[in-house]
Amino acid sequence: MASPRIGVVGATGAVGTITLELLAERGYDARAFASARSAGTRLPFGDDEILVEEATPEALGAGDIDLFLFSVGTGASRELVPIASAAGAICIDKSSAYRLVDGYPLVVPEVNGGRALEALQRDRIVANPNCCTIPLTCVLKPLHDAAVLTRVRVATYQSVSGAGAQRMEALRAEPASEHNLVMDWSWEGDESDEESKLRAETRKIMELPDLPITATCVRVPVLVGHSEAIWAEFEEPLSAAEATAILSESPSVRVLRLPAYPTPRDAAGGDDVLVGRIRRDEAADNGLALFLSSDNLRKGAALNAIQIAELLLAGSAVA
Ligand SMILES: NC(=O)c1ccc[n+]([C@@H]2O[C@H](COP(=O)([O-])OP(=O)(O)OC[C@H]3O[C@@H](n4cnc5c(N)ncnc54)[C@H](OP(=O)(O)O)[C@@H]3O)[C@@H](O)[C@H]2O)c1
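Structure tokens for the assembled complex are given below, as produced in the milestone run.
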């Protein structure tokens, strides 16, 4: 497809604005959609500006867009994605609406990119994973291929941009003396929805339905960039040096060696998942401890979705 007609739905949001930035950088044209609240406003698009249109069912169902990138909430996605799909468009959805629904591919291109093409045989809807799941699977998959994962424990340090543009504004306005760690998730018994999503999505993407995973997810007073401390156990021995060598060759991963280590500030604005502190886990037989940081708005959301889109556009051109 020479010049795909792309629609960004949720264009005014934290993820949507980065999506427009990345599309313009890559030379694509786009139309911007958001709610009635921001219809008629204009957003930067490369050296130009772009008009924000209201994401009505009529506009999304008109059949004049080849591919939609959705970054609206789950409720809005459930309403609008089927309309765009029925009109023939490819839809990449960043909400939770389709991630764990059987039959819908949940894709990290470096990990299970081939799955994306399955959507072309059905209703062309692909789900983009949670912003912690994406970097976690980028790091776990190559290690699993080498030594077979048996158990994962993870603690997250998630920036406020993961909760949207309004939360970024709130942090900017908050005095530093009031900054705190919070767990402002929805609770499912003892566990948060964020923690259960991280487990279920990782299992689906890696096609390891029984992999034991426990997560503790925490929101930290950082604007952009999610970090994760990971303890991974394996069937086969895997030394820190071997894991370092494997990850150094892995796509979208950049290994940092001490005295350098990943931080959200270093990850923010970049495309790579930064991984470091790779060391033997003294509390496990075949275990490694690692630490990663990644830009949740880019690889954790907008960039991953555009990479999926490019797989599908190439696939639909061939099909
Ligand atoms: N932030 C992240 O790191 C991240 C990562 C992965 C996935 N996601 C997912 O991406 C989605 C958006 O996240 P965000 O952080 O960008 O949120 P956000 O900053 O709050 O932006 C939400 C966007 O959705 C639009 N919107 C809301 N309701 C709508 C409706 N009924 N119809 C059309 N547009 C509507 C808003 O438009 P108005 O400005 O007009 O209100 C805004 O453009 C969520 O599902 C989130 O879970 C976010």
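The pocket of NAP is lined by residues 10-16, 34-35, 37-38, 55, 71-74, 76, 94-95, 131, 161-162, 164-165, 296-297, 300-301 (CB under 6 Å). The mean pLDDT is 97. Further analysis is deferred to the final report.
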